[in-house]
Amino acid sequence: MSATKTRQYANLQAQLAQLNANLADTENLLRMTAVQAEDMRFLGGYVGGLFMGSAKVLGEEGVKDVGGALS
Predict the structure, then answer these.
(1) Average pLDDT along the chain
(2) What is the C-alpha to C-alpha distance for residues 35 and 20, in angstroms, rounded to an integer?
(3) In this entry, which stretches build a coiled coil (predicted)?
């Protein structure tokens, strides 16, 4: 094999090793993102429930205040 071909194969091997490392990093990041997406879904439901509850409480107080002012 010629020296040029040997050098090209060595370069290709280095690039493939780097690609493999980058793919492993990407896989780990995607796995972490999937876990965080589930957590965000839970937090969204939790905060939505708090928002609806506070709107109901504040809405009832607003109705009482308006009713008292009209009396």
Answers:
(1) 89
(2) 23
(3) 2-36
